[in-house]
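Protocol step 4 of 5: obtain the predicted structure for the target chain.
Materials: sequence only (see below). No template structures provided, no constraints applied. The aim of this step is simply to have a reference model before the mutagenesis design in step 5. Sequence pasted as it appears in the construct record:
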Amino acid sequence: MSRRKDASTRLIKPTLPEIYVDEVLQLVDHWDPDWECNGDVQIFDEGIAQYLLIGPKSHSKFFASLILSKPSLRCTVLPTEPVDVLEEQAGNTLQLIYSGQITSQGAKDIEFLKQVLSKRGYHFDQ
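Step 4 output (structure tokens):
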């Protein structure tokens, strides 16, 4: 059985290299406060004050929470460690994937997200 845990967004680590910009911005525009406490975001607890994100949906909600400056998320802790594709195969380089045009506010939000993630040691391919 999985458990829930409040995790600081500073301690959550992405494991997938793709950021689906349109999906993230949609989540920012239609943020549901329940996502901060309902365990929708799935993580693996490494036991070293760092949590690995599990799955694309969790990643998108995490990135949206960073844009919205959310300090923490109540996450569901799963027992299976995800493969850290971002670190092991992509060299901590994130790829922004756009499927359409974004607004000027969306561009500002993505620039803010890039700054936050760059400070954490991540790089971008663009």
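Step 4 remarks: The longest strand covers residues 3-8. The radius of gyration is 14 Å.
Proceed to step 5.
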